[in-house]
Amino acid sequence: MHDPTPANTPTSADAPAPADTPTPADAPAPADAATSADTPAPADTPGNAPAPENARTPPAAAGCPAHGAARQRPPALFDPRFAADPYPAYAWLREHAPVHRTTLPSGVEAWLVTRYPDARQALADARLSKSPHHHREQGAHGKGKVGIPGERSANLMTHLLNIDPPDHTRLRRLVSKAFTPRRVAAFAPRVRELADGLIDGFAARGTADLIHEFAFPLPIYAICDMLGVPSRDQEDFRSWAGMMIHQPGSPRGGVGRAVKRMRGYLSELIESKRAGLADGAPGDDLISGLIRASDHGEHLTGEEAAAMAFILLFAGFETTVNLIGNGTYALLRHPAQRARLQQAVTGNAGTAGTDGRTDAFLETAVEELLRYDGPVELATWRFATEPLTLGGQRIAAGDPVLVVLAAADRDPAKFPEPDVLDLTRTDNQHLGYGHGIHYCLGAPLARLEGRTAFAALFGRLPDLRLDADPDELRWRGGLIMRGLRTLPVAFTPHGGSTSV
């Protein structure tokens, strides 16, 4: 999947949602930062303010000489205001310090890359390794300052987010044999069935928290089904996943425990499926596909299989939680764009239905939502294997480099009117799912789930509306991932299911 992750290490705060805010590169990455307290939302700012629907955000004032030298200081990063709306700070960095060295809340020093050309170069640069072994601060990974918390102690290091060629090439090729576009396409009816079932659970009530009741469970159940996790065990996965991203009600400090429990379960499941295949069981799930791929001339060790299943599962849900949550919030805050999508999924007569044009519009809309306020704020960790120059800055061997996807995807040098949400934007080569050999393996599944979720929500709940003051919303602060903690909505209550 892509470059995302769990909310893991100390960073910014759970902060109120901005007025207008809105996958996987080999798999989603861990949100490597801890959170602080809920705090009041910032004033409306460029990127996230309820401006006129298609008004262009004015240029950052930081570049205006009239504001004096004080305006040339770098903006505060990783505080509660930043968590609520990082885009003004990223705009300043793009203009004044496009490759910027900073100290993260964990104490680790890293380079932030914010301009599109530099970001694209860094994502594909072989001199930037994915392996934490190249980090000059060797103890940082063991202390959970980089990477997914608990992955080392749970013996889950050998996955696509942590390795380079040739091991990366071999593992990705094996996983690609099982995780095929055909398998994803065949899974579409099941994703729609899951989406409708979740909406059925709250449709008669007239209110819902779309994060807890829809955006969070949909990708968990979907990836569990695809991997072949029995339905009787899927609630355990929902609980472990909630611990990993600090869902309300989850115990604090449970990330490491959740990772270990998930790893133990997956090891047992893999051995059970391996035995079943040996006895002639059909095994048409993804884990069985991984086992078969490893038994035909190539090889996945038990440790590699468990690590791959773990990262596919973990990568397969948090990015989609945020895609659905951020995307729905953005649509509710941009009524003209929401009306375009709703028209596409309901048609002139107001009845649910899809055709080729609807599918094409949904595809374009999802790409724009990924660009505008995507689920992955920063790509996962990279480490310089030798001295190199990036964006005019000299980076020493061993230095961590973090590509800020959220900043690159609003670079005005690449995207006209980047702070405007335009669901018809066609020239949209965003970096939300990465670039290069670590491009998100799970991107087709994430896109399918996003299209299905938006079609189901706005097709079945045509008067869906925000049921909270935007200033009261809280964001899950994290270094890698960014998404809403809750999304209260209201709509006209109704029963029954309608297929879109």
From TrEMBL:
One of its GO terms (molecular function) is heme binding. Keywords: Heme, Iron, Metal-binding, Monooxygenase, Oxidoreductase. Residues 1-72, 128-148 are annotated as: Disordered. InterPro entries: Cyt_P450 (IPR001128), Cyt_P450_B (IPR002397), Cyt_P450_sf (IPR036396). Gene3D superfamilies: Cytochrome P450 (1.10.630.10). The keyword Metal-binding applies. The keyword Iron applies. PANTHER family: CYTOCHROME P450 YJIB-RELATED, P450, PUTATIVE (EUROFUNG)-RELATED. Belongs to the cytochrome P450 family. This is Cytochrome P450 hydroxylase. It comes from Streptomyces cacaoi. The lineage of its organism: Bacteria, Bacillati, Actinomycetota, Actinomycetes, Kitasatosporales.
